[in-house]
């Protein structure tokens, strides 16, 4: 039996008293404190499994139970780490940032309320993309999801961590409309129009009256979101689009400059992502099938893999959704912008209402196949994400590529990245893939990640999301006026959560009660 | 979706086609174990899932789908679910309770008599 883990400053007796009270609130079977329980909340894909360990977990099923657990946690000073379904893979999954925290596992909360006429849904945190997809299919509701590349996780959790998908509704956090939130003292608030009892507009108008708080509870530790409203895309009449491959790394520059103005103008409503060859290949093969030496793959091996699977150095998938006349016209305009450019290959996609849907993220169907990339090294794979935000500019994108690619080669890692468009920006999503059985490689990951962050910071590019191990590092790069934003966040945190019980350290926000843990957790 | 009909899918850029999201023909009629398997495991372990994709690299055709296997024991299934294996993370008792896991494990071990 492993030694028990307790929160900092909490004695075994205090912990036992707390767990007894937790059990009275939700039933002892949902207070999970065995060794196996603790292990099941560890970050399975981490490069260091000895860190960020939970003391146990609590699994409520109602908002009232959440409120009671939060009150008890405050009484006994037990830090809680809320998770929706714990599938934030690459960013820490279910593991708490502060070791000894109890995971507040909301995966049993699975209520779904769909407003078919208005195209909205109200979900509890445990509702996964597969759950909601199945619900819509079983009830023959003509609404489409936007799903992330790994759709194992929670609909609400993904939107709350600013996850993205591949349809016109792909900026998930921008589609949030109304929340129900348990505050650190157990109080319950509904945001937007939900502040009015039984308002029929809770999921229709975001702002309500006065300050609007939805984004305050995104990537934060100011409350526990127990219900989240989201807009869903009405099933379109048609879908059109194309997949393009490009031959050279340098093609990135012109591809970005072709797409960016179309995205800004709104001709292109979907947010395409330009991915490198390994994004595609890592779901199809493993490294050891091609190369058995350490260090980044040489160009000759990359060329052989590309040839075998007929993939470009970069690829992009562009889609249009809506009435047939509109999608056809928009596609024509976008293809005209690519005319005369060195496109390696092009494959068209089309769908009309009534046809079976292609099972991909571009049609809003949940998928997990992309998770195969963690197996790139074979055996026990792991991965973490590095995702700086930068302007949608071809020259800057190419410079970012060269800079980052050099770091991958310096640290002997295989480059796996994409440049994902927003309306005005690009997020350079990097997957750092590693072999959990390669001690030397694991030893390089920390330093490699720090180098990537330092390089991005030198360009004044900040990450939009990061792994729990690096939240202090990334928060520290937001440095305007002596880290004024962090100071504001912590003033809010201390006002709402004086005991610091909710997710201390999340997004670099440390309550006074745990201030000494900054940089050490 | 975990019970839908056959539809081929395309990976990001490869053009490689995968098969369906339906249970294999050898799967028995609907029952509590099978329904729970679909709900809790189907996203990765039916035909369009990460688990099936990875197992297809190590097992003969047909054996990559857990529902078609005849060599799974309930104890093995339980251990893998609770501790993880290779690319598969462990699942907590909140996500799959012990009674639910017992039914899933019995379902997957039904061919191993």
Overview of the structural elements:
In chain A, helix 1 (12-26) runs antiparallel to helix 3 (63-76), helix 6 (251-265) packs across helix 10 (394-410) and helix 10 runs antiparallel to helix 11 (439-458). Chain A starts with 11 loop residues before the first helix and ends in a 25-residue tail after the last helix. Chain A is 30% helix and 20% strand. Chain A is built from 13 helices and 19 strands. Chain A has 521 residues and is of the alpha+beta class. In chain B, a hairpin with a 6-residue loop joins strand 1 (9-10) and strand 2 (17-18). Chain B has one domain (2-109): Cytochrome Bc1 Complex, Chain D, domain 2. Chain B has a two-stranded antiparallel ribbon. The model of chain B is unreliable at 1-20 (pLDDT under 50). Chain B contains five helices and two strands; from the N terminus they run ββααααα. Chain B is globular. Chains A and B meet through helix 2, helix 4 and helix 7 of A and strand 1, helix 2 and helix 3 of B.
Care to count the β-strands of chain B? Answer: 2
Superfamily (CATH H level) name of chain B? Cytochrome c-like domain
Cα Rg of chain A: 23 Å
User: Percentage of helical residues of chain B?
Assistant: 25-40%
- Mean pLDDT reading of chain A: 96
- Classify the beta-strand content of chain B into a percent band: under 5%
- Secondary structure class of chain A reads alpha+beta
CATH architectural name of chain B: Orthogonal Bundle
